[in-house]
């Protein structure tokens, strides 16, 4: 079993930071409550205004797929989209 | 209490990957066993040969300082150093 790490960089439109953080908190709670294959899912602010990074860790590829297919990711992701200034940048990593 | 996230990028010399990963596994075990203020500490391989990223999360700044001052970080860090191809690149993040 090889863990999968993801670092997602999200750029939020000026003035939408609070709305973004609020919806993301709902998403993180849903991930923690419903995804047995996820071991870490947390939003961080970077030093650049409006730029956030999400650190994520999954037990395996199936757990990543389950995350992306989940109702909470689809419904809350749809609410996050209008806050963003562009497409998320996703870096995928492999547990060592 | 504001969580602190760290993404550390480490470049390992060719041929030293296995030694590096072995020492890092000892370090991660020591962090998990001894640092109550750390909630995540995991090594990942990136897509670039010899380039690793560590995802770290601490409860607060004091927990980061306790990590850096710990005997396990100092002693095992000294063993990791000779495997590296340059200084680690550290990105510090703030929990949102």
Textual characterization of the structure:
The first copy, chain A, is 39% helix and 32% strand. By secondary structure, chain A is of the alpha+beta class. In chain A, strands 2-3-1-4 form a four-stranded antiparallel β-sheet, covered by helices on one side. In chain A, α1 (17-34) runs antiparallel to α3 (71-80). The mean pLDDT of chain A is 97. Chains A and B meet through β2, β3 and β4 of A and β2, β3 and β4 of B.
Task: Spell out the key features of this protein.
alpha+beta, AI-2_Isomerase_LsrG (chains A, B), Antibiotic biosynthesis monooxygenase (chains A, B), globular, monooxygenase activity (chains A, B), monooxygenase (chains A, B), homodimer
Low-confidence stretches of chain A: none
Class by SSE composition of chain A: alpha+beta
| Biggest interface and residues each | A-B, 22 and 22 residues
User: How many helices of chain A does DSSP assign?
Assistant: 3
Percentage of residues in strands of chain A: 25-35%
Quaternary structure state of the chains depicted: homodimer
What is the CATH first-level class name of chain A? Alpha Beta
Gyration radius over CA of chain A: 13 Å
What would CATH call the architecture of chain A? 2-Layer Sandwich
Number of domains of chain A: 1
The count of β-strands of chain A is 4
Average pLDDT taken over every residue of chain A: 97
Largest sheet of chain A: 4 strands, antiparallel
Cα distance spanning the termini of chain A: 11 Å
Q: Per CATH, what is the topology of chain A?
A: Alpha-Beta Plaits
What letter string, H or E per element, gives the SSE order of chain A? EHEEHHE
Strand sequence of the main sheet of chain A, in spatial order?
A: 2-3-1-4
Shape call of chain A: globular
